[in-house]
Amino acid sequence: MVAQGDAAGGALPRSPEAPVTVDVYARSYEAGPGDAGIAYDRGVAAAELRADQAAGPLDGYWRVVDDAGVALLDLVLSDAGGVAEGGWRGPSGAGAAEATDGLLGLEGLGSIRLQRTREGWRGGLSVDGRTRRVTLIRLR
Question: What's the rounded Cα separation, in Å, for the pair 58 and 85?
Answer without folding.
Answer: 9
